[in-house]
Structures are given as structure tokens and as C-alpha cells.
Recover the amino acids of this structure.
């Protein structure tokens, strides 16, 4: 299935699932005055925003290249991931503040078995969404889907602690509710910061990873006519990279022969999933000076 269509489908599932969870968490959280459940409901609201950002960002990123955007619109994924991460950080700070207050003043908590039911429903729903979204994120190499998948699995762990807090309240242990609220806040904050860093690195044109660069160098090394490479550069284009470099070839070869080598190499490198476009410049050198190994 098309990369962008699968992303849109996952986004819609995420929005529908989180709206359902937001409603039941909010009702039960407000009714029982559980800070952990209220924090969990706010987290679900953030997840709706997350899925919405995924949908919009994916829609923009799916547009083909045009005269104004020669390399396409792939970076839209990272722009919206950045927006998503900032919203997560702001939500986490607000939740942390209210959770600390609940810990210092653990009063007014009313246990209800509905808390347990909502926790179990949330865990099952979020686990299903995680398994679905994570598999798509890996197969499509999509940072927006991966951010959503992290949200889903985080929610499973968060709600598990929420469940423990609910059960402990039966014995009158109310302080754990505030602890869980603080834990949820810190978890959301940590996830938001990590997504922010990853998105920021791509938007700031972070170089290609050593692993992927070595894949390119390994392909180049198969061509014995190439004596040396120079000026290796890589620029992120959405979730892929445009790379460019110069190859040094025996100057005695004809212009046609040397460019045929470059054309063949470009096609081989472009077959890598991580590469968007390869641009190669040919430098002719004297044969007696061409005995150096390929280097980067």
C-alpha cells in the first residue's frame, strides 16, 4: 500500500481511538477526582492532536516536487513532528505542576471500579494501536508514525501505573495517585524532548548516518574504475537523503565511458531505501596518479 495512504489510515484510527478514550477518561477522572486519571485524559487529548498533526503533515509531505519545492515536501513530516513535540512538552509541564499539588494534598479521591474498567479498556486499545502503528512506521520509515507509536506504547505503561494507583486507593493509599501523575508528566516530557531533537536534527540538515554512508561507499567500492571519491555531501529530504560527490576516473577514458560509469553508479545507489537522489561529478585524473584507495 502507498506510504502516505497507510499513514493517513493510521492517523484516522489514532484520532477515533483517542477521542473514545478521552471521553471515558474525562468522565471517570472528574467524577472520582483522580489526578492520575485526569492526567491520563489530558494525555489522550494530546494524542488526538498528535494524530491530527500526523494526518496534516503526511498530507503535505505526500505532494510531489514542483517549481517552488524542487526536492518535494518531505520535510513537512519533521515540521509537524516538531510542533507535536512542543505541544507534548507544554502539556507535560502543566500536568507536572498539578500532579505535584495533588501529591502534597492527597485528598478528595473517590475510588470507583469504573477507574479499573477504564484503565483496562485503555491498555487494550492502546496496545492494539501501538502494534498496528509501529509495524507501519518500520515498514514505511516514517517519523510521524513512529512518534505516534511511541505515544501509544507510553500510554500502555502510563495507564498500568494508573491502574495500580486506583487499586491502592481501596486501602486508603492516596499519595500514589499523585506519584503516578508526576510519572506520566515526566514520561510525556521525555518523549516530547526526544521527538523534538530528532525533528530538529533533520530540519537542520544533519548529515547521513555512518551506517547509511557505509552502504553507499560499499556500492562505490565495487567499481574498480573509480580511484578516489571527494566532496561527499548529504542533505535530508524528508525521510531520505540527497547525496552528491565527485569520483576520480582515468582521464584516458572517453567522456561517454566515464559518464556511463557515473550513470550506472547513480542508479545503483538510488535503489537504497534511504536515498532520494544521487548526483555525481566526474573528475578525470592521470592514470599514474590514480593508485589511491577509495576514501571519504
Amino acid at each position: 500500500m502507498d506510504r502516505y495512504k497507510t499513514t493517513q489510515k493510521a492517523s484516522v484510527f489514532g484520532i477515533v481511538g483517542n477521542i473514545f478514550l478521552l471521553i471515558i477518561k474525562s468522565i471517570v477522572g472528574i467524577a472520582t477526582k483522580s489526578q492520575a486519571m485526569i492526567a491520563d485524559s489530558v494525555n489522550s487529548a494530546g494524542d488526538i492532536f498528535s494524530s491530527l498533526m500526523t494526518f496534516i503533515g503526511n498530507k503535505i509531505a505526500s505532494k510531489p516536487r514542483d517549481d517552488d519545492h524542487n526536492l518535494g515536501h518531505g520535510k513537512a513530516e519533521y515540521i509537524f513532528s516538531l510542533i507535536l513535540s512542543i505541544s507534548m512538552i507544554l502539556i507535560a509541564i502543566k500536568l507536572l505542576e498539578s500532579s505535584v499539588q495533588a501529591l502534597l494534598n492527597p485528598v478528595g479521591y473517590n475510588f470507583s471500579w469504573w477507574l479499573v474498567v477504564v484503565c483496562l479498556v485503555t491498555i487494550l486499545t492502546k496496545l492494539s494501536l501501538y502494534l498496528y502503528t509501529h509495524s507501519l512506521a518500520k515498514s514505511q520509515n516514517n517519523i510521524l508514525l513512529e512518534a505516534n507509536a511511541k505515544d501509544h506504547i507510553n500510554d500502555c505503561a502510563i495507564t498500568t501505573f494508573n491502574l495500580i494507583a486506583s487499586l491502592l486507593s481501596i486501602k486508603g493509599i492516596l499519595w500514589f495517585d499523585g506519584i503516578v501523575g508526576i510519572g506520566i508528566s515526566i514520561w510525556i516530557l521525555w518523549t516530547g524532548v526526544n521527538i523534538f531533537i530528532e525533528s530538529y536534527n533533520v530540519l537542520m540538515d544533519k548529515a547521513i548516518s555512518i551506517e547509511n554512508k557505509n552502504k553507499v561507499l560499499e556500492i562505490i567500492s565495487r567499481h574498480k574504475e573509480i580511484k578516489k571519491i571527494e566532496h561527499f555531501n548529504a542533505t535530508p529530504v524528508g525521510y531520505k537523503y540527497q547525496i552528491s560527490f565527485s569520483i576520480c576516473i582515468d582521464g584516458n577514458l572517453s567522456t561517454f565511458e566515464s559518464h556511463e560509469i557515473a550513470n550506472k553508479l547513480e542508479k545503483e545507489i538510488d535503489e537504497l531505501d534511504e536515498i532520494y537522489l544521487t548526483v555525481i561529478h566526474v573528475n578525470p585524473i592521470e592514470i599514474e596518479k590514480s593508485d589511491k584507495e577509495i576514501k571519504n
About this structure: The chain has two domains: 3-203, 210-289. Residues 3-203 form a domain with the Alpha-lytic protease prodomain-like fold (CATH 1.20.1510.10). The radius of gyration is 26 Å.
